[in-house]
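## Example record

The block below lists the input lines for one assembly entry, exactly as stored, with component labels intact.
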Amino acid sequence: MSEVRVLVGTCKGAFVLTSDAKRERWDISGPHFGGWEIYHLKGSPADPNRLYASQSSGWFGQLIQRSNDGGKTWEPVGNKFVYDGVPATHQWYDGTPHPWEFARVWHLEPSLIDPDTVYAGVEDAALFRSIDGGQTWQELSGLRGHGSGPSWQPGAGGMCLHTILLDPSDPGRIFIAISAAGVFRTDDAGKTWRPINRGLKSEQISDPHAEVGHCVHRIAMHRSRPGVLFMQKHWDVMRSDDAGESWQEVSGNLPTDFGFPIDVHKHEPETIYVVPIKSDSEHYPPEGKLRVYRSRTGGHEWEALTKGLPQSDCYVNVLRDAMAVDSFDPCGVYFGTTGGQVYASADAGDSWVPIVRDLPRVLSVEVQTLP
Amino acid sequence: MIRVVLPAHLRTLTRVDGEVILDVKVQATQRSVLDALEARYPMLRGAIRDQVTQQRRAFVRFFACEQDLSHELPDTLLPDAVAMGAEPFLIIGAIAGG
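Predicted structure tokens for the full assembly:
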């Protein structure tokens, strides 16, 4: 019988939540790596029992953990992330040059076809790849080296490479996003890169036409249309219909267009989800109401999804990597909060229930739909 | 014989219960003890000192014989009591909340 496995990274460990296709009763295992920050964990599309986890701590640094049995057991693999060549400098918060320094792995993206190949997006922003199951890591340094690196700057959470989208129709094409630099694309499997941010406007940047320096919070695609991208920027929800060559705002009737996650329905490429947050200085929902907003038109027109979500006195945030969808029909949607709740909808967002209420601050949520 | 006490998170990581006992063939220094420790437990590489610069991580301290040895040079001999196994070499996570 089909099963769903929800992988939750928190600031004090990882949790694995499992259910059958009904998604009504859940088993919860964890914490795995208790006490450590688990920024992200994700399974291989080519081998769902192969999982990778980013385990880190301010005291003891970065570890990468690998599981070959769906998260029942784990083994530490390689954790040597060394920038290629001279690290150079990026901008610090005040605009002065600051040397690149490795802090942590924010996001792990396993290859679509090879369980031993996995990409890591790190802070300070760079992209690494392993082709031996995480034992060794090499930087794809064409990204930092393409020219605009000295003008990248950190967002409030650090200068992180937080999103990696692999194009299922073109193995050479990868999209990545960095706070606060923007979106970049390679068409040759990571050798060369260029920024793709035309159409983004950010008042924090003095040059209104600047192509880098934008605080992109998250990008998403539907695998059937990899040329269509959706973006939650610091402010503004955006879309591109030409693989990032140009962007148009689709915030429409959202109560606020600030937020962190954005995701796409598994079976409807024009149905997208965001969680509006009041502002960049007030990281909680407007009016104390936790509302997911869904657009069935690829943006512009949004509806509030509230059934089962707290509609008073709610002041949690939903971080950029903390929303995911499953492959069942109807599509399941999941998100985790900084208050430790993981909410699930088994009806594409029409109604929600908390799978678990009292985890540590949730940093990431991923979903695997298993046969 | 060198006795090493790891902080709780690193005991969990290495699945060690209690002290680590190391047989260090050369003179006991921070470097030789950490080399032996990382050889026994490769998952500790990078957790106590940087893998490239070999510098102690900022939030890690080294204590022994009621002394703070954190700022000693890595090739300075450890106290005789540590080298002889009478006292443990303590690896400490700094008290910094969290």
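The CA atoms of residues 67 and 79 of chain B lie 10 Å apart. Chain B touches chain A at residues 7-10, 12-13, 42-43, 45-48, 51-52, 57, 59-60, 93-94, 96, 98 (CB under 8 Å).
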